[in-house]
Amino acid sequence: LSESGVKICLEKGLNVIHGRIDEPLSFNDNEFDYSICNVTIQMVMYPEVLLKEMKRISKYQIISFPNFAFYKNRIDLLLSGRMPKPMLFDYKWYNTGHIHQFSITDFYELIDEVGGIKVEQLLWAKTNNHFKDYLSKTFPNLFMAIPIFYLSQKHA
User: Fold this and answer.
1) Of 33, 30, 53, 27, which Cα lies nearest the Cα of 41?
2) SS3 for 28-67, per residue?
3) In angstroms, rounded to a whole number, what is the distance separating the alpha carbons of residues 74 and 142?
């Protein structure tokens, strides 16, 4: 939607399609191998439409988002009674682009509702701390700050 973003892309010689990503897209079914939505799905008006379109136009989908159920957010909300600051990336609750705050559990529910999607892997940015990585793998909804879902079209 950003005119300035389109201009910068064009200046760099990139092909640009200007429009909303949470409306039907002008691409053919399975036109791409991969579609990627990096820390953006929480900012669109209709995440279910975005997910359906990603599934329609590509064989594989990669989606990442801030996990609202991350333990630091829970503690911040519990102790301060306010919207967690780490979740907002230095914005205030009223001027962030976030429309939807959701968790990994919520995203699994969205995947089920959209249907026809298989979770290939749930990934995260691994650390050098084996204990933190163990917690992220074992309790993702609590310990993954930004999950990365590797999805595919589910074939009957």
Assistant:
1) 53
2) CCCCEEEEEEECCHHHCCCHHHHHHHHHHHEEEEEEECCC
3) 9
Are 24 and 53 spatial neighbours (Cβ–Cβ below 8 Å)? yes
Residue with tokens 């191998």: 33
Residue 54 near residue 34 (C-beta atoms within 8 A): no
As a whole number of angstroms, the distance between CA 9 and CA 3 comes to 10
CA 108 to chain centre: 12
Query: pLDDT tens digits, the chain, 156 residues: what are they?
Result: 678 888 999 999 998 888 888 888 889 999 999 999 999 999 899 999 999 999 999 999 999 999 999 999 999 889 988 877 766 667 777 777 778 889 999 999 999 999 999 999 999 998 889 999 999 999 999 999 999 999 999 876
Question: What distance lies between CA 139 and its chain's CA centroid?
Answer: 18
